[in-house]
Input
Amino acid sequence: MVQYATAAEDKQARREVILEAALALFLEDTRRLPTVAAVAIRSGLAKGTVYLYFDSKEQIFASLLVRDWLQFIGLIAEFFEHSVGTEEERLAAFIEFYVAHILDRPELMRLDSIGYAMLEPALSDAALLDLKIQFSGALDGAGRAMEGALNLRAGEGVTLLFRHFAMTRGLWQVADLPQAVRAHPGFAGHPFARVDFGDDLSHALADYWRGALAKPR
Output
């Protein structure tokens, strides 16, 4: 049992080395995915070794995306488990915490924005199912923590969080423009060119949550 545990820990550690190498490369240019060969070089491993853990570069970055979302959702659950104040105060603090986390991790929304079109289609059904189960399980836990903090009905927390994440994704896709496009004389005057993702996300989420909690429940 000790040998098995050690082997499992070594395998997980090697997997994390690969994911961290992939993240470092992606942060150098978040508009394209590095190759498996590049990830192998950055991680100090043979390319064949990387393929022992991941079938493709898409699986590497899908796993990275889910890993980071799971960590973030875990932080959301902890936030609501320890939040204090009125419901309005807890929500205001949550939105501030959430937006700050998103802005501090530029890779998260960029990977999320390419997940549906580029990452998920390259995964096997089994791999995709595993990732979705992990994500939905974490979201259920955060939803329950939110329900306790905000006096919501059972099951309501995960529904509200799901819509919360969908709003974040949609606003990011509107706001994520190359600077050359944003500054072009023919486009710079349009409201889309002036979207400030962090500021607009804060206001949109505040409006959303006020409306959601104002409805009869």
